[in-house]
Each structure stands twice: as structure tokens, then as C-alpha cells.
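Next comes this protein:
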Amino acid sequence: MEITNWWPLAFLLLIPVIILLYMLKQKAKEYPFSSSILWKEIYHSVEATKPWEKLKKNILMILQILTVCLLIVALMAPYLKTGGKMYNNVILVLDTSASMGIRYNEKRTRMEEAVERACNYIDSLSETAQITVLTSNQEAGILKTNAEDKQALKKQLKQLAVTDLSGDAMPAVSVVTSMVSQLDKYEAVFFTDAPLELGNLDATVVNLYTDYKNLSMDYLSYGSQQDENGGRSTTVIGKITNDTDESVTTDVNLYGDNTLLKVQSVTIPAKSSQNFFFEQIDFQGDILMAELNNQDDLSADNRAYAVVSAESRKTALLVTEDNMFLEKAISNMDWVDLYKTSQLSAVGKTESYDFYIFDGVIPEELPEQGNILYVNPPDGTQVTVKEKLSNVSLAFTDTEVTQYVAGFSFGATAAESLERPLWADSFLTSGDHCVGYYGEAGGRRIAVLGFDLHDSDLALQAEFPILISNLTEYMMVSGMVPQNDYETGDKIVFNGNLNGSDLTVTSPAGAVVTLPTAVTTNAYTDTAQAGVYSVAQTVNGEERQEQFVVRFPVEAESHLEEAAVEVGETAGEDNKNLTGGRELRNWIILILLLALGVEWFIYIRQH
């Protein structure tokens, strides 16, 4: 047993005072007698009743002494050690990433279970323990430092909510390691559902991973078509992933601006994905949303959004000898007017275009305006070819221009290893070789694809039109929002009008943030919630508003797999008894109240 406070022992001095008061309280009583013989008997009886003999008969005094003793023990705050050591410095880390929103059991999510166990652990700590609480997802955050008020801390913990961010408790490991470097004795406890590498940190990991059943809406996209009569209709495409061991059939509800447009039944095989289509949708609004009509263990990934862009015609010039793959992929975009030529001399001489595609050629003089895509460029001043490659495997990296194709690989009989400029990011690689890059330079956007499409089977794959669509949308950027689709945690830099007002950004929850117009300072980072955001600006008295989607991190958070339990880690039901000790104060106070009740009862009976 551990004692928290020793100073209450000073109150033991009250016990002699109580005894002395009772000794002084003895009163003489009259005894009538008829003769002196009886007086002698009474005298011997009084002599036999010494002060300490009288004390035996005074139960109220005994109860009052017991009450004082119990009060002293309660103030000493004793603890019964139930395992492990007692620490005065305690650090708790709670994983608030999106996967913690998965149901732990029928009553709670993993996050709610983590908060419940953290509160129980706080109750078991000594009164002098200083408690620091961190949260962690993509980054570590400090919720409270060196707190001693347990009730206030528990109230703050119970207000903690799971985010829609990807991540785990790993970012907090380095923070905790730095915190404890100056402490001799400490206890660090991590509450998470993902594997954790602690390194040299001595800590306890409470692994809250449990088996779960989940369907996820991975993405939603759309396209517009024009029929023979000039009318337009929308086709919506999406993908659902089934993480369960059984085939699942569910309804998919399609909404347009919160109005139900169509319902479709989709069957997804076990441990696989399934695409779905809504065709000939008559919708002229702004926001499409597809939602799974199925209850599972993670509801946050059951819906996906798409912003329907206003019709804005863009022009593109394809300079090529004969590349039907590129021509077909770009011409399928209704919002792009594609022009084609085989003459480099025509570039920049008459008309200007929003987007130039140079296939196998580079002009001596670039057009003054317009973004550029080079395909299979020759070595020159615009693009530097380091090495020729043959019979290689190429793979797309995870970038903004490889959305939905990241990780896809294909073969090519010939390719070019490119020298990537400092302003560019690679999106296509072969081992350590850069075969494709993109970025901004000289006030324009530039992308390079370092191989001939005829030397690979990429153009025959379903990923090819998606890649070209991503590159085209990247090249055609306009308006305040660079793109319509982001993921939680992304930083967004808006293209505000320098002559306009400050930008106001509204989150799905209705929170409004004001940002300055200058591009270098208006980075928006409050994207922890998935959903539809809007940004507005007033220019020359006219209010302009655009919307964009922040996606739930499905790939990172919806498809977690169980990891082996490491040393110092507890899993599932095994960690329910995490405790630093058992507080005895409440029990002692209960006995104290009982003693006071008995004393009051005896006092009433005697009087």
C-alpha cells in the first residue's frame, strides 16, 4: 500500500484532547444511604471506578476517536497497489485517427473505449500524479500538460472526438520520448488500434484493434454526355470495397443537392471491390453524393461526394504525327475543345490555347501562354534525357495527377530516364529512374511523360483515360480552387483575386475561416473533416463562390489489418484492467460516514 500524504498524522494530537475532555466531564452523583455502614461500601465502589475504568463505559468517546482516525487516514489518501509501480509523471496518448471511429463493441467505438479506459486509469492514479494528455493522427497535439485536477481532465477527455484524418499514434512517440528524457520515473500509455514502433521508449500500448465488418465508398466521379437532340445527361461512377468475409448486397442512394435522384442495388463479393454506374441522370445542380444504405462498423466512409463543375470550355492543341490514343482520350472530355496539327510552325503563330500537348516533338520557341504536356520528348533545352531504357516496368507514384491510378504498373519496351528539375515532382518511375514529372515553372504548368505510348500497353488499360483526365484537369486549372477533390489533412492554397476581398472558407460543420487573398499566405489547413467545403470572395461588388470536396482517407483508414501484439503491448479484452493502483479514500470516507451515523444514533438514545 502507498501513502500519498503524511501531514494529516499531525491531527493525531486531537485524540488526547478528546480523552482529556471526557475525563474532565465526570460529574458527582448523590447517593442516599441510611447509615454510615453503607457509606463505607459506596466509598470503596467509587475508589474502584478509576478514570480509565470510566472511559471503558463511554462509547461516544470511542466513536469520536475512531472518527478522527478515519478522517486522518482519508486525508492521507492511501492506495492499494494492484500491479506495477506508482508514478507521479504520467503521459497518455490517444489515437484520434479515422479508424478509431470503428465500433469496438455494441456499445462503443474504439475512440469511446479509449476515452473510457483512460478515465478509469486516471481514477486509479495518486492525488499527486501530474498527467499529460496527447492526441495523435497525422501529427501529435497536446491536449493538457501536468494536470492534477482529475475531474476536469476527465471532462475534457470525454469531449474528445475522433477525426476523419489518416494516421496513428506514431507521431506522438518522438514527442513523448523528448518529454520523458528529463524524468527519472514516468508512465507512458498509448491507446491506439495500429502497430506502434516505440524504439527505446519504455511505454505501455493498449491495442484497441478488434475484428470488424465494413463496406467503404471509395470514390465518386461523373461525366456529362450530349444526346442526338442536344440534351445533356450525367453518368455517375463509383467504387465500393467489401472488407468482410461474405458477399454483401446493399442499396446505393444517389443524391443531388440533398435530393434523392436514384437508388441502385449492388452486390460486392467478399474481400473485393465493385464499380457501380448511374446512367442518364438529369441533374443541373452542384453536389452529387452517393451513400451506402448499409449499417456497418464504420459509418464515416459510407458516403462520397463529387462537385459538378460549371461548364467552362477550354481549348487544347495536340501536336502529333499520329497518336490516336491521346486524341481519343482528350476528345472524350466534353469541356475541352481539341485541335490537332502536325506542324510545329503553327504553334503560337495565330491562336493561343489553354493547353498544349507535344507528342514526340518540342518547339524551338514556346507559346507565350498555356500549359504544356510533353509526351516522349527528344533531348533538348526544355527536357533533359539522362538515359535510354529498354524493356522496363513503370509504376505511378502517389501524387495529385495520379489519383485512382497510384500504384498501377505496366511494361514498356522503351522509355527515357529524365532529369527531374528542382521545381518538379515525379509521378512515374522505373526503379530509381524518373520517367514522368510535373510542376510549375515560368508561370505555367508543365508535365512530361518519358515514353512513346505505342511502346507500351498503357493506352489499352482502363487507367490510361483516368491518367489523361487527371493531367488535363491539372493543366486546365482555373478559379479560386485549384482542384475539386482533396483528402482530409491536405493543405489547400486558393487562387484568390488580388483586387478582391479576403477569402472566407466554410467547413461542412459550418465553421468559417477568413484568409488573406495573397497566394503565399492563404494556405487552408482545417481539413480534418470529410465533406463539402465552400470558399467565397467578393470582387468588384460581386460575390464569387466555389465548392470542393475533402474525401475520407479510405485507403489508409478503412482497410486496416490486425497486427501482431508486440512486447509491452496489450490487446482486446486483455488490457481492460490497466491501472496504477486502487484508491482507498472513498471506502474510508464511507466507513467514516457510517461511524458518524452510529454516533448520532447512540447520542439520541442516551438523551
Remarks:
- The first strand starts at residue 2 and ends at 3.
- The chain has a mean pLDDT of 84.
- The chain has eleven helices and 32 strands.
